[in-house]
Amino acid sequence: MLKTIILLTDTVQQQPPLANLLREHNRDLAFCSALRAADLGAIEADVLSEARLVSFAADVAVSEKFLLQLGYGAYKFYAAPVQFPGLPPAPDERDDDPRCYSVIAQSMTIWPDFKKIVGLETVTIPDGSAAAERERLVFSRLAHLFWQMSGMIAGEAADLPGIIESSESQRPTLAMMN
Prior knowledge:
By secondary structure, this protein is α/β, with parallel strands linked by helices. The chain has 6 helices and 7 strands. The longest helix has 23 residues, at 131-153.
C-alpha cells in the first residue's frame, strides 16, 4: 500500500502546497521532504518500499540504489525548451531564446530505455516576453500539469500509464539484464 510520498523540490516553499494538493486525493499519505541527494539518503529503507518519489522542478540526481528501493516508482516534473520531447529540435529552436517549451512528467528508472512520459503540455512564449515572464509562464504550466496528475500521483497504482513510452513497456527482468 502506498503510504509515503517523497517530495524532492528546488525550494522548501514548494513542499507544503504540493503535499496539500496530494493529500486532497489521499488523506492517509505521509510526506518526506527533500531538497538534496543527501536528504534522500537520510530516509529510512523500510519507508521506501511503500513510497513514491516525486521530483518537482528539482535538478537533483537520484541514485540507482534509491530508485530500486521504491515500491511505487519515481516521477519527475520538469520543463525543457523543446516542442516535441524525444525528437531533435527544429533548426529555429536552437537559439538562446526559445519560444516553445514542454512541461513534462516522466518516470525515473535506472534503465533509460524504460523511461516513459506520463504527462505533457507545451507552452508557447509570446514574442517580446522578458525572461522573468517566460519563467513564470513555464512554471505555471508545470504546476498545472502537477495539479492535473495529482490524483494519479497520490493513488495506489504502482506504475502510472505512459502517454509516450519505449517499445518495451515492461520493467526489465533479471534475465534481460544479463
